[in-house]
Amino acid sequence: IQLPECSNYLAIQPKMIVGVLFIFIFPSLQLCWTYTIEIYKCLTPYGINGFCRTKRECFGYKGPINTHGCPSGTFCCPDSGISKRKCEEYSAAVFGTLEDQLNTEVYDDDFESNCNIEGVPLIVGGVEAALKEFPHMAALGFGLTPNTAKWMCGGTLISEHFVLTAAHCLDHYTVGRPKFVKLGMVNVLRDYSKNIQIHNIDKVISYPYYNKAVKMNDIGLIKLKRKVQFNTYALPGCLDSEGVIKEARVIATGWGKTRNDLREGSASLLKVTLNIIGINDCKKAFNRKSRYGKLDQSRMCAGDLRGGKDTCQGDSGGPIQTILEHPFCMYRIVGVTSFGLTCGFVFAPAIYTRVFNYIPWIEHVVWSHES
Question: Per its UniProt record, what InterPro entries does this chain match (predicted)?
């Protein structure tokens, strides 16, 4: 069945942006629910553009506070703009010389695009990704050596030294902390090409207010011991620093299980498109606050309420993303896979940690020396 497109709206009110998405959920009726995100733009006392955030969200800020025009409990948190600048900077690696010499001192005018997503239509679920299609994808390895490691979580390369993932992947309940990060491949077990980079982990950093019991604020960072060599096989994704999601669907990627009853995840990187699910419908599925925590704007729901398309065990920490119009051939990382009720069942969406809410903390950890 061909899924009909639902309408997308972006309503702008004074000092506030409200993204309203209408999500199709039944195969024979075009019924839609709304998913509303309130984002308040503002000016700091120094006249710097920013977003209204809570004290926790505006991590590391110690300047004067302006609450004018912001909802109760929030103030104007300056937007450093560094995530956008880095997105532009990293996108240059999409264009290499014909020999793909992206990390040499030799440059000339003979550049060609190495984009592997240009013109690719919206993906339909559960198919293998192509090499270089998601160059920001990282696999987290647990074990003593890379050869014996179990690759049990995903992540997103976001800079030369950092990978974004879920906090619960940084201290696995059976195998402890990850030791390795693998980049530049689609088959996590049998790909031994020269393009693969395997990095030792220097340290893991969970969000300071991560609640392990209910997986609130389920987001974390991995610092690598050595610098990643950017090329068309390993290239960072762009962080969602604007917050407004105009798309009705996102793309999820990972090496997780393809069925609940399987013991191991997929060896090949898989991709699937998921509908963004309205918060009211999400609350119906996750209706036990004591078990699942609060469904606030730091989280988002996605899936296919008819069943059959979902993320599953082993996909944790990986991204949900959209394709950016600009910069060319870059993805915007809007969420981090956190947890779900089950895999691919009817009316069983999954929970994703929303990246926008954690931008100040991510920028403080990853690029504080540059801001």
Answer: Peptidase_S1_PA, Peptidase_S1_PA_chymotrypsin, Peptidase_S1A, Trypsin_dom, TRYPSIN_HIS, TRYPSIN_SER
Per-residue model confidence as pLDDT tens digits over 329-356 = 899 999 999 987 755 444 568 899 999 9
**Stated pTM of the model:** 0.84
Most confident of the following: 10-19, 315-324, 334-343: 315-324
Query: Residue 316: CA atoms inside 13 Å, Cβ hemisphere, count?
Result: 23
Q: What is the 3-state secondary structure (H, E, C) of the chain?
A: CCCCCCCEEEEEECCEEEEEEEEECCCCCCCEEEEEEEEEEEECCCCCEEEEECCCCCCCCCCCCCCCCCCCCCEEEECCCHHHHHHHHHHHHHEEECCCCCCCCCCCCCEEECCCCCCCCCCCCCEECCCCCCCCEEEEEECCCCCCCEEEEEEEECCCCEEEECHHHHCECCCECCCEEEECCCECCCCCCCCCEEEEEEEEEECCCCECCCCECCCEEEEECCCCCCCCCCCCCEECCCCCCCCCEEEEEECCCCCCCCCCCCCECEEEEEEEECHHHHHHHCCCHHHHCCCCCCEEEEECCCCCCCCCCCCCCCEEEEECCCCCCCEEEEEEEEEECCCCCCCCCEEEEEHHHHHHHHHHHHHCCCC
State the Rg of the chain over Cα: 20
Q: 304 an active-site residue? A: no
Q: Where are the domains of the chain?
A: 41-79, 238-356
Catalytic annotation, pick one of 218, 240, 281, 310: 218
Query: Rounded distance, CA 282 to CA 273, Å?
Result: 18
218 part of the active site? yes
What pLDDT shows up at residue 5? 36
Quick count: other Cβ atoms within 10 Å of Cβ 59?
A: 19
Mean pLDDT of 80-105: 73
Q: How far apart are CA 53 and CA 40, in angstroms?
A: 8
Choosing from 241, 266, 316, 338, the catalytic residue is 316
Topology (CATH level 3) of domain 238-356: Thrombin, subunit H (2.40.10)
Among 79, 80, 83, 168, the one annotated catalytic: 168
91 is catalytic: no
pLDDT over 90 at 70, yes or no: yes
